[in-house]
Amino acid sequence: RHPGWLLASSAFALRFFRADDSGGWRDDGALRSVAAGVDDMLETGDGYLWLVTRTGEVWRVDFRDGPRPDAPAVRYDVARGVPPALRRDHLRLLRLESELFVAGPRNLLRYDSAADHFSPDARFPTDAQPGSWSPAVPPGAADGDTWFYFPEPRPRLAHLFADAAGRWRSQDLSAAELSDLVINHLAADRGQRTLWLAGQGALVSVDLDWRPAHPSPPLHVVLRGATTPDGRAVAIDRSIPLPTQVSSLRFEFAAPA
Known about the structure:
This protein is an all-beta fold. It has no helices and 21 strands. 0% of the residues lie in helices and 42% in strands.
């Protein structure tokens, strides 16, 4: 939304960089309202930038007047529905079905803009419960690019989506052979329908439209008719005696697909 600006986080602060006339980048300082390094960022298109700090705090920065180091920010703590994060929670910001969520292994929190408050989403998928997943969101992910890693009962990556009844369902990534890959980073290429996975010692691309081959079902054979060697039709829908001089029959079969 703001061409010419670059936001990058160090271990201690979110810094602003602006393109200069020489083609380089000028450091315009750190965001003063959030004095911490940032693990995740998400723009919601309404002038706000959401952050998750390295300590698991959730903040909303007001960029409606443009990005600047003195932009005001609001922290979403317990009073606003976000419990303190544990050391290994690794909270992520994401959009599902056009709604804003904060996701972690212990909960999935949905943001209510009217109440300016987060609350647990009760529509967990039937095959997963809080504590058995972690979000794996590509940077700048669009709605539908969000993947969740489910370690139990078997390691897998899956989309999360709402069904017609509004319940969350999961759809597995069709790449079972990657189930043991320790995933460090993801990138989704929507144009090429490809998901890139960076693991420990591996870079893998997965075609999102690929599906494993399934064996064809056994054919159902239908007897179409029977004739004698001289071409006379023989009834096949009832038992009839054959002339003694007929020693063979010709049968026609069909196997509908």
